Fold this protein.
Amino acid sequence: MRNTPSAAADLRVAAEGRKYWEPGTGQVDVRFDPARTQQTLDLGNRVVPEVVRELCENIDVQVHDIDVFITNQPNRTFLRNWRDALGIPPERHVDTYDTLGNLYGAGLPVTLDHALRGGRVRPGDLVVVAGFAHAGDFAAAAAFRWQAGA
């Protein structure tokens, strides 16, 4: 798990004609600080592979030992860059981006459910889930061995 407090202010929620927490019918929009776009992209591209490598080191496995990799899915570019940085082939990086888009915090559990229902996770598989939140101010990775029916 990693926290980068300096990135916390790089993402803001805005609502038309009201405070975002006030009730209303106007659209709510998530906006990144345009002056820090490149820094946000750089952090997002870097932090997920870093927490995955640290996790693998901590549990004494190699990145290539990961059978199923599931991340949050902010966009196709991050998905590709994370896979490439870790050397994980696309067939082992399960995502639902093309059908469900960016699900924010729900991306990991929803995609894991799709992987399980689709038979992409087999008993004994090393599954690694990872992602970042906000503008990269929080990132984490976790691993587990799948044991169906246990």
User: Anything to note?
Assistant: The chain has a mean pLDDT of 88.
